[in-house]
Target: Glucose-6-phosphate isomerase
Amino acid sequence: MSQPITASLKALKLHLQQNPVDIRQKLSSETDRFDRFNLCLEDMLLDFSKCALDEKTVALLVELATAANVEEKREAMFAGERINTTEDRPVLHVALRAPRDANFTADARNVMADVHRVLDSMRVFADGIRQGEIKGKTGKAFTDVVNIGIGGSDLGPAMATLALAPYHDGPRLHYVSNVDGAHIADTIKALEPETTLFIIASKTFTTIETMTNARTAQRWIVEKLGQDAVRDHFCAVSTALDKVSAFGIDPSRVFGFWDWVGGRYSLWSAIGLPIMIAIGPRNFEAFLAGGHAMDEHFRKAPLEKNLPVMFALLGIWHRLICGYSARAVIPYDQRLSRLPAYLQQLDMESNGKSVTLDGKDVACVSGPLVWGEPGTNGQHAFFQLLHQGTDIIPVEFILAAKGHEPELDEHHNLLVANCLAQSQALARGRTREEAEAQLLAKGVKKDQAKALAPHRVFAGNRPSMTLLYRQLDPYTLGRLIALYEHRVFVEAQIFGINAFDQWGVELGKELATDLLPIVQGRDEGSALDTSTKGLVQKIRDLAQ
Ligand SMILES: O=P(O)(O)OC[C@H]1O[C@H](O)[C@H](O)[C@@H](O)[C@@H]1O
Model:
């Protein structure tokens, strides 16, 4: 960690010690607090007035971003420098959502022509499927599309398809990711091979889960429709075009992308093909435009007015200065139910590391645990811990001012009221005196009120942010995802780590490969550790 970052963190810690902010008290004494602690991009607003900070905190956080050279590093990313040093690659997912005439270069070559060539061919293909012009082997239009992929080749498109359901006017979409045979079995049992198209989505085209599911899907099609049906019923998305053709997929049905697109940043690329098939090319373009609008803002807005930068700095405040080990993402939007899972990969696979860019141990903690569920469901499950548990977990509430069901306004009003009530409750809490007074007002006897009151105390002063926008349309989803992507980037600069590799997923993969022959019974596994050996034996016994 550089000396300026260390000094900045020290100043922030000192400020926290010397000027602790009581959120509850500030919310009642500072009537202009909301105006002072929010940031906007168009209709999208980040309210952080319910965090325990003051103007000095914000100023010190901005100094921290400067100390970490965030602006310089951001420009290095946009300039196509090889900032993913451990894989020796540029990081240019921002080019995927830029207009045709933009200028993004990787290895001194403008990539925009390639980006738009693939987008154009995706458009033609997606339209062909949507309009029923591209048909299955027996001449029937496709009614169902199954995307087979995992991690970045699944989570983004699956999350976005659900999020944009009101715009979904193409064939039905299904996502198969897990190597557990139950996933593909349950998916295809309701489908007709004649009207089903498979998209095999894998950046590397080597991922064992995806390849296993792809072969099962291939067998299903071949058994029902014959070997020559593979050509009509499969297409692929990958950077490894040679491996795709070895699988037998028609080269005209392969949509490429590039090694400068990280898997968890790839839903803007051809990996977004299922989204485009679902919502149509125009809506997909609006999604890209939303991402691009956030990129422009991230590049141009001064640090203190910069939404992704401030969002990141607030994350750093909670993680590095206040010491909170988790963050909860609670979308008050059922259609964002897969957003927490998507963000888990984006954030935790990017920033869950213990080694800095130069190979040294990180000087402090790095990325937090990210988790969540949609509200209001979460309220009836784990919110108990958020309000009264011994850990403080900052919450990120996500809310649209407007739903897509005007006839169900009553539902939306309840959703909004609940979302606001939760952040209020976290901040405000309830004192023992208040709890006691409430019980007495309800006619509970004095002794009993005294005994019950401690159980009804909410400490309060628990931080939350609210991300609010007009409506969850494709453009807004684009802005939302790009906002989180850039936040992860900015946080990584402060941690001093590479946000774009994922070596931590390798060891388990290697060991699974070694274990397979033992599980299959082809190898005794005599060299196994005692625990794993015992489990293998027990599995064999139980499976008899
Ligand atoms: O798209 P693929 O090459 O099949 O990779 C799918 C996923 O698998 C890997 O294990 C990585 O951890 C992910 O970052 C990646 O998104």
